[in-house]
Amino acid sequence: MQAKEVESKHGWIQLSDGYLNKTPIFQFILVCLMFPLWGAAASLNDILITQFKTVFMLNDAATAFVQSAFYGGYFLIAIPASIVIKKMSYKFAIMIGLIAYIVGCGLFFPASQVATYGMFLAAIFAIAIGLSFLETSAETYSSMLGPKKSANFRINFAGTLVPLGDILGIVLGKYLIFGTVGNLSEKMANMHGAARLAYGEKMLQLTLRPYKYILIVLVVMLIILALTPMPAAKATNTSSDGVEEEKPSLGETFRYLVKNARFRKAVAAQFVYVGMQTTVWSFTIRLALKMGDHLTDSAASTFMIYSYIAWFVGKVVANFLMGRFSITRVLAIYSVFGTIALILTMSIPNMTSVIMAIAASFFFGPQWPTIYSHALDTVTEKKYNETAGAFVVMAIVGGAIVPAIQGWVSDITGSMQFSFIVPMLCFLYVTIYWALEYRYDKKHPYTVVED
User: Fold this and answer.
1) pLDDT, tens digit (0-9, with 9 covering 90-100), for 386-401
2) Which of 12, 313, 357, 383 has its CA 20 to 30 A from that of 239?
3) Spatial contact of 41 and 131, defined as CB atoms under 8 Å apart
4) The domain containing residue 38 runs over which residues?
């Protein structure tokens, strides 16, 4: 049945399935600019892990609590965020996300004064609350801002901007937090008592610097968004006689999604993928410091810049390939090579292992947005879209769990390099997922939605 059209004075036509007849360019760009915002916060965590390990004298498992606080916040808030979207709008949810992000950045000011690990984790958790609202809304919203046939392209295009935020975050951390300190662990190794405490507090003050700049950007983005008219981009539920039906309850939506086997598999793949990506990036700097003789913290962080550049290039190449070949086939091949890269990371006993970890980031490129859009493609009843998107975002909790597992493996075995077996097994799982999806597409060619 032809989708019911709702005229708009703003130049786009809202269709009853939630999509638009055309993409409003300014509004789409504005939503796309939200994507680098969570990239910057995530990459700063990789800097903070290295800083906190030395200052607070943590083992590898304890440093992973940074990611646990960060991605745990995503997990807890995704469903409440979807409820806000359902009751209000995508725009309203994005604005709440920006406000919470601003509050979280502001908490770094008292955290640097209190100078306790727990206070910093609280600030990171507050940022994660904002990012959960941002990502739950912006991921699905970007895919809905235009015709249905180009939904996968839109979310992948928007996702291509995330590495730019990651690069910005790691550059801010490299120069504003690490600065000219050198190797912090070596510098503090012979410090004790009050001298160590005073120097540690001085180093924690440096964590404020990047968040000051991020705060300015967030406030500007919030003002622009508040003043910009945005499409609803939400499906309208109508009966056969044209009467609008009540929106599905959370319980009804949950039952629908649980019965959807392919959606469940996509959520599981997203959980494993995010865990793998987070743990590789969390420990790449540490791996470089282990493998490189007398490498400074700032120099080691440069490898993360290379990782994010590789991630960005991997996305661009994948977008080109996915426009010409089967999406599931491209992702299956990417995953095979990514698995091989991590096998080499854990087995080559020199700096080449760090290069292989960077290579793995190339193959991370298209994974998150493509799994996300692939999961939504399996939801044929679009009235469940908002909550379905929230469940996929909840899978980001893998970033809280898998790094803790790798940290535990590193502590138990005494080998940071061997602990990369954890993300390698994760990439192997993702490879199997895409191989099975490719086989499904071959058997059901008429159900495949390709751009």
Assistant:
1) 678 778 878 888 887 8
2) 12
3) yes
4) 21-233+250-444
